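BACKBONE GEOMETRY TOKENS:
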Amino acid sequence: MSCCCEKKDPNQEAVDAVLAKYKGTKGALIPVLQQCQDIYGYMPKECMAQISKGLNIPLSEIFGVVTFYAQFHLNPRGRNIIRCCLGTACHVRGGAKIFERVQKVTGVKDGETTEDLRYTLESVACIGACGLAPVIMVNDDTHGRLTPDKIPDILAQYE
């Protein structure tokens, strides 16, 4: 049974604070979405509905923006984001084998997140470390000159 005194979800309160900060500001949608995603780690439906109401913007428009920009995510992401480079230099030096090994070790495919929310795997066109090819990034850490055998030890550092 619910009570009138029940506490509001702290994340909802944080979103309310963001909405209050941007109330009446033109062009506020993107910064509001960015800050709200920082609160949750992704963009849950309930949060988008709260933003819709708070900014008086149709939910369909918010959904359109969230799905258009790659920076926004509709599902929870892992604590560790693994980016596997499949660009030209990495491809030539065996990047596909590295990517296959990461998929095998984590048990997820491109764009998926492990059930325990430890890892999210993403393929990228270029990391910008071509001299170290093949390369992966885990969060902000770059790991280069890889062989498939190095992957388990690298990922173990992030458990």
Summary: The radius of gyration is 19 Å.
